[in-house]
Amino acid sequence: MNLYINCFNRFMGCLGYLLNSALSLFPADIISTVEFNYSGELLATGDKGGRVVIFQHEQESKNRPHLRGEYNVYSTFQSHEPEFDYLKSLEIEEKINKIRWLPQQNAAHFLLSTNDKTIKLWKISERDKRAEGYNLKDEDGRLRDPFRITSLRVPVLMPMDLMVEASPRRIFANAHTYHINSISVNSDHETYLSADDLRINLWHLEITDRSFNIVDIKPANMEELTEVITAAECHPHQCNVFVYSSSKGTIRLCDMRAAALCDRHSKFFEEPEDPSSRSFFSEIISSISDVKFSHSGRYMMTRDYLSVKVWDLNMENRPVETYQVHEYLRSKLCSLYENDCIFDKFECCWNGSDSAIMTGSYNNFFRMFDRNTRRDITLEASRESSKPRATLKPRKVSTGGKRKKDEISVDSLDFNKKILHTAWHPKDNVIAVAATNNLYIFQDKIN
Amino acid sequence: MLGRGVKRKWSCLEDHVQQRQLVLGLCLEKLQRCQAGVELSLRRSVLLINTLRQIQEEMRSDGSDAQFDTPLDAADPDSRLLRCDIPVTCPGCAEGDKEGPSPPSVLPSLDTNSSPSPSKSLPAATHSTLSDAVNAVGYLSDLALDDIFEDIDTSMYETSDLVAGSFWPVSVSLWAEEEVKVRSAGPASAGTLQSCLMDLNELDHIMEILVKS
């Protein structure tokens, strides 16, 4: 059954949110993270300029029954500002490295956003009423002398235009010496972890002046440093379990019940290296750029430079599935090393039912893999395909031999157009793809 | 396809050596190329240094170091590099390094050990390159604050240091001056930072050799 591929073929570009004109490529507008909330109703993006933009799903319209409804801008706010570390004489970039939503508890929404050093908890709430009728202030807004207030007046709530407010609720600072690469909300909904290159900290969402260091791989002598933490995530159901990946291509699963400091892992996932494909770049390309648990919690997925691997948590010695993302780049590694692309950190995501996975590539291409049929597809995020009702056409890169019609040769790929961040709606076939400073939202066609 | 005689194999080997030189050269260049004022990615630096180590190991094991040895050694007796024993590890200044009295300060100009500390006489430009390169490897980024303040020294204002201080504004070529200093200081007094500079110096030499070869 290749139902999924059919779906992919029918994936329809319904929206192409051009947050910024493609002509004005301000570096600050480059999208650095994309994340749906738990219901999929909201989609948050963070950018290099420290801003967070939240999109909200609009209800289906009767005029356009073929669309599930669009995502429109709901709220925009400046989450982080550039700072300067005076002790180290270094700039701290405002770039948002990660956004994670908290499960919704009441009418308001909460999210965590982080740059290299500081994590912030934001509350996003709506206000459509205003209290009026106070007599404590005069017309200029100055407080009146209490002795001159002679009557008690109860303010009344008056309707007003809907306003969405984002307010910083907690600031978790000064706990990371290195660059924060991951944050992950725990399934207890009370704690979260934050990981930098060498350490992982565990926080309580209510407490900002204290965090517990749960992993520390910093050697006493930094000369001996050969490995860094590249990503970390909490298990979706077991609040004592988390994983972290390393620049050596390995993943460690830790159990916080075992010890307060999880320096000793409970499980160690590693695939033996294939000696036939060994090169100077072996270690660089095996470095894991992202790790994500499946929604079920049974599997996890890791992304390295050329492939995506799905691991069964019960099997440590090799992945259960390996998907090649752009194997044709193996012969180009030297130039990708030369132009630094080999250090790009591609992320990956699961669909809502864990039956498909998605990750990015170059030339504004992104890849989807159907785990059941083992079929895959390459799609392109472009303005062309984002016209309403335009169907995304599968793209193909010619790998040696004669280039067929409609195929693109490896040499003509644009390595400046890279898709590092993608997100999949938790329930529906709606995906968000960040291509430099453009956000594309595609949805599966509804018949 | 490969098994067509010795000649082909030889050219394969040559390709490999050539690629190795290219990778090595780029590695060094990437480690040295620094963006002023911005902390570099530790992941990238660690991956680059591991690659360097791997190449170093390979060169050592197949003895290819010997073939470059002679001419360079003759040209510059100081260049250990050619023998491929560059301490690729880190341009020297690890925290916890027992040799030096303290890790190199983030603010070398305030460095204050009364013992002859090479950082006092650092040319400004050397300092920035050095600290960037060292930052690239992450060494300076994790200094405890105490260390920094402990190191603040007023001795830089003392007259005895004026000679060394005169190096500061003149740095046109980072390494040339560095050599002068290293030699005058003598290897015995070489502290952490000094060895660090020497290492960088050597990396630079390797680069030159590679670029010219």
Automatic annotation (TrEMBL), chain A:
Keywords: Repeat, WD repeat. It comes from the Eukaryota. Gene3D superfamilies: YVTN repeat-like/Quinoprotein amine dehydrogenase. Signal peptide: none annotated. Residues 381-404 are annotated as: Disordered. GO terms for cellular component: protein phosphatase type 2A complex. One of its GO terms (molecular function) is protein phosphatase regulator activity. Coiled coil: none annotated. InterPro entries: PP2A_PR55, PP2A_PR55_CS, WD40/YVTN_repeat-like_dom_sf, WD40_repeat_dom_sf, WD40_rpt. Belongs to the phosphatase 2A regulatory subunit B family. PANTHER family: PROTEIN PHOSPHATASE PP2A REGULATORY SUBUNIT B. PP2A consists of a common heterodimeric core enzyme, composed of a 36 kDa catalytic subunit (subunit C) and a 65 kDa constant regulatory subunit (PR65 or subunit A), that associates with a variety of regulatory subunits. This is Serine/threonine-protein phosphatase 2A 55 kDa regulatory subunit B. It comes from Myripristis murdjan. The lineage of its organism: Eukaryota, Metazoa, Chordata, Craniata, Vertebrata.
UniProtKB/TrEMBL annotation, chain B:
InterPro entries: E2F-SERTA_domain_protein, SERTA_dom. One of its GO terms (cellular component) is nucleus. Residues 94-125 are annotated as: Disordered. It comes from the Eukaryota. Residues 107-123 have a biased composition (Low complexity). Residues 16-63 form the SERTA domain. Pfam families: SERTA (PF06031). This is Si:dkey-177p2.6. It comes from Myripristis murdjan. The gene is si:dkey-177p2.6.
